[in-house]
Amino acid sequence: MQFIDLDAQQARIRPVLERRIADVLRHGRYIMGPEVRELEERLAAFCGARHCLGCASGSAALDLVLLAWGLGPGDAVLTTALSFIATAESIARTGATPVFVDIDRHFNLNAASLETALTALEKGDPSLHPLPRQAVEGRLRPRAIIAVDLFGRPADYAEILAVARRHGLKVLEDAAQGFGGRYGDRALCACGCDAAATSFFPAKPLGCYGDGGAVFTDDAALAALVDSLRYHGRIDADHKNENVRLGMNGRLDTLQAAILLAKLDIFAQELDERRDVAARWGRLLAHVPGLTLPAPPQAPGRSTWAQYSVLLPTGADRAALAAELAAGGIPTAVNYPNGLHMQKAFAGLGYAPGDFPVALDVTARVLSLPMHPYLDAATQERIAESLRAALARQGQGE
Ligand SMILES: *Cc1c(COP(=O)(O)O)cnc(C)c1O
After folding, report:
1. Reduced to 3 states, what is the DSSP secondary structure of residue 167?
2. What is the largest CA-CA distance in the chain?
3. Distance from residue 174's CA to the centre of ligand 1 (Å)
């Protein structure tokens, strides 16, 4: 059994995939070839954003937006305490300081805490909200917010954008797990933020066969800047060797674009299938005592179900449970075992484990189950039964 079954997907699209790859081998334009532009147009249309720019990875997409916004030392960027490392890494790499905020019951940035964090930051007062030591030793200027659609579930954009507007901050949506989801009547990556970044890492809902990512925005000036920055700050395609700003090699390569075009043909269907699998998880796991299932997404939002993550009962031994499931051929994952504030890379910020109690609790209890469009009912039933039995053996949930 696979945690994510990419083979079943490949079998489904094999002829188109091979034709797309053969096209690239024939024309040989491996960098910024025609497939990149075609993909960008289709992705922009898919979510309803004006501009899409293919990038080398989801991390590069985050970097490019923050670089375009000119963030640097003395700036603060507020973000969630629970995400993949890249979210906060991108902030720190510009020289700006990440300021962490606890999560809500959807595992996403808590908008009420965000407002409190901004007040604490403005006053330099960590008694109001935990702050990095840099914000107490000297003043940091809040510049931006990064909200994450963790596990594919939309963050609370109405509230987050209202806070951002009150404080004059930009908002970047880290939709690495969220492309394909919805928030209200808008698609993620086009739900009102200044920019969004997604990832095509193979395990994401829309993944390529290597690294890839994209930036989405309605802001033409930002799109032009990211276009330049991803190509070493060149003026434009006609002036390749005239570099007017410091950029990077942040491009999506043509072969990955070709692979994504083949996958995009079935992506909407796959999202429906993911929703069916998630609904089945909900029905099956409702009978497992002691589990906390994902809260329904922000009404009327829609998750991509990048992960199906449950919370184990407080007394459960997660490592032993995962080992027992693994012995029975059932893979699981822990997303994520550490809050960002507890990563060694951020030790210099001086946070304590209990600064974000909700995130701390989730990191101790969260367990992600197999989740992909090709998961069949019989397999899900077997996993649910194994999980129930393993918990019962630990004396949980009777
Ligand atoms: C995967 C991921 C990233 C980074 O994407 P890469 O393509 O691996 O660089 C950033 N943020 C989140 C929330 C992610 O899940």
Report:
1. helix
2. 69
3. 8
pLDDT of 269 higher than 80? yes
Q: Which of 2, 36, 4, 29 is nearest to 259 (CA)?
A: 36
Are the CB atoms for 308 and 3 separated by under 8 Å? no
Query: How far is residue 292 from each of residues 143, 367, 397, measured CA to CA in Å?
Result: 36, 10, 11
Ligand 1 atom 6: residue of nearest CA: 58
Q: Which residue has the tokens 């960002």?
A: 340
Output the CA 176–ligand 1 centroid distance in Å.
5
Average pLDDT, the chain: 96
Q: Taking the CB of residue 334, how many other CB atoms lie within 10 A of it? A: 16
pLDDT category of residue 299 using cuts at 50, 70 and 90: low
Note if the bond before 336 is cis, omega within 30 degrees.
Answer: yes
- CB atoms under 10 Å from CB of 342, counted, come to 20
Quote the pLDDT of residue 298. Answer: 63
What is the per-residue pLDDT across 185-196, written as a single tens digit (0 to 9) for each? Answer: 999 999 999 999
Q: Write out the DSSP string of 313-353.
A: -TT--HHHHHHHHHHTT---B-S-SS-GGGSGGGGGG---G
